[in-house]
Amino acid sequence: MPQTAATMDPGFRLGIDLGGTKIEGLLLSPDGAELARHRIPAPRGSYEATIEAVAGLVDRVEEAAGRRGSIGIGIPGSPSPRTGMMRNANSTWLNGRPLGADLETRLGRPVRLANDANCFALSEAVDGAGAGARSVFGVILGTGCGGGFVHEGRLVDGAHGIGGEWGHNPLPWSKPDEHPGPQCWCGRHGCMEVWVSGPAVANDHARVTGETFPADEIARRAGHGDAAARRTLDRHASRLARGLAAIINVFDPEVIVLGGGLSQLGHLYAELPALVAPHVFSDHVEVRIRPPKWGDASGVRGAARLWR
Length: 308
Known about the structure:
By secondary structure, the chain is α/β, with parallel strands linked by helices. The chain folds into two domains: 5-116, 2-Layer Sandwich (Nucleotidyltransferase, domain 5), CATH 3.30.420; 129-292, Nucleotidyltransferase, domain 5, CATH 3.30.420.
């Protein structure tokens, strides 16, 4: 049975990370301690089943914690500020649907939605790898490519709710063999997502070598001396550096935090600062690029903090 807002425990925050393959829920105490956490498979292709799965997970996490909290949900894509309808989600069955309103009706209390990359950025800015910095850019390098801006502890999502959507901008300073670039699912060519995401690394390696491996296998082979795999990672680092330099030239964050599966590539933290520097419009470049403190829990923690 839906709970009313009056039954909520003040200061307790529940986060939901609504992914394409899994849904994770977590409840934080007022001091940020994790009280309960659970993960379930995400329904595929069904909007109605997604609503029910989220509602069931909220009930399960709150029952385990013995508390009820405010609800924040990290989502693929974003709700339109004009219509409230979902858009730009690679979980395409959500697009064009009033997800926030339907969840509020089902749960019987207010819900805040934000792009999953925004939630990642907020989590790492508040008490993660960017804690204490005035401005943070959080980057997702996983199945897709996203980002989020946080300034003085607050998300900067913009007038159209698309702040940080760097994944669907073109690769800056592209080379002749990088133009126009592979086609993106959004319909354009050469988006950052088709150059720096996990599938992008695999696709680039296949185009150049004819070998088909996932990104983690390419990284493993590079670590064991495979020259072709190493060159694939070098091309990826160059493209990622150019994309981040464009962000620095616009937003100038104090800290950049990498998230998603490719954030585990340790060479990026050693190599990116020098690769970024030539493209930054400044006489002095000190780029702090860090791995996430909270790993794959950042998204769900940031969703909870949408009620901060």
